[in-house]
From TrEMBL, chain A:
Organism the protein comes from: Methanococcoides methylutens
Pfam families reported in the protein's UniProt record: Trm112p
Stored SUPFAM superfamilies: Trm112p-like
Top-level lineage group: Archaea
Classification via InterPro entries: Trm112-like
Protein name per UniProt: Trm112 family protein
Automatic annotation (TrEMBL), chain B:
The entry's keywords: Methyltransferase, Transferase
GO BP term (any one): methylation
Annotated organism of origin: Methanococcoides vulcani
Lineage: Archaea, Methanobacteriati, Methanobacteriota, Stenosarchaea group, Methanomicrobia
GO molecular function annotation: methyltransferase activity
Coiled coil location: none
Protein name as it appears in the record: Methyltransferase
Length: 60, 201
């Protein structure tokens, strides 16, 4: 995902803002990392460049 | 780009590995995708931001980017489909972003929404969250529905209005076990929907 996708990303539970944590990126985009909601204490993974905003119970 | 050329290009978009019948994961045929996108392009609706709701393996999203949309984001709830979508975008050399979430959670704003939502043939009403979300985030929506959906869609999207629509065919290849023929032609309708306040025709 590109960094400017952050402006449309929100916590799917509380709709609050998310904190981006990058573990791998190239010059164009973020390859892997997490999005963290401090209010819900929930992490959402970014894998292969795709943020997964499904609630934890729906992830594989 | 000519419609036919776009269609040939979109033939390269790979389909689902293991389609889920409850999600109605039929890949949008390139001929239908090219038709919808060409329609949107000619109306000048593919210049700005475009969202593809329920993008699956990315057919409409990738096509919109090919035709010059500034920014395209594809949304789907199936991470496996999005992996293929990403590969498809790379293969066709276009930059499209993908996000994995429930379609009801889509936020932000797009000038144009393009979508081929589930028709609700397997899970009744599964097209509704797509229409609701499209009305929420987009100014103009292009959507494909089962033939005969006009009355329902018209009522459901109020106060938004359908400015144009037409009937076309949709070849669907044998995807699930209960399909009896190799290829079945499905009659569908393509709608162009605008929110009333920015209706321009």
């Amino acid at each position: 995902m590109k960094k400017d996708l952050m402006d449309i990303l929100a916590c799917p539970i509380c709709k609050g803002d998310l904190v981006l944590n990058i573990s791998k990126e190239d010059e164009k985009e973020i390859i892997s990392g997490t999005l963290y909601c401090s209010k819900c204490n929930e992490y959402f993974p970014i894998e292969d460049g795709i943020p997964n905003m499904l609630p934890p119970e729906l992830r594989e | 780009m000519k419609q036919r050329k776009l269609e040939i290009l979109l033939e390269k978009v790979r389909s689902f590995d293991s389609p889920d019948v409850t999600l109605e994961q039929y890949s949008t045929p390139s001929v239908l995708a090219a038709e919808l996108l060409h329609f949107a392009f000619m109306k000048g609706d593919l210049d700005d931001t475009v969202y593809d709701l329920g993008c699956g393996t990315g057919m409409l999203a990738i096509g919109a980017k090919v035709l010059g949309a500034k920014r395209v984001v594809g949304f789907d709830s199936d991470p496996a489909a999005l992996d293929i979508a990403r590969e498809n975008a790379e293969k066709l050399g276009v930059e499209v972003e993908f996000e994995c979430l429930d379609i009801r959670q889509v936020r932000g704003h797009a000038h144009t929404v393009v979508m081929n939502p589930p028709f609700g043939a397997q899970v009744k009403g599964s097209d509704r969250p797509f229409l609701s979300t499209a009305m929420k985030v987009g100014d103009v929506t292009y959507s494909i529905h089962n033939s005969g959906s006009l009355a329902f869609v018209k009522k459901f999207i109020e106060p938004a209005v359908i400015t144009e629509w037409y009937n076309t065919g949709f070849p669907i290849k044998r995807t699930f076990k209960f399909h009896k023929k190799d290829v079945e032609r499905i009659e569908v309708e393509i709608y162009r929907i605008t929110k009333e306040n920015d209706q321009d025709n």
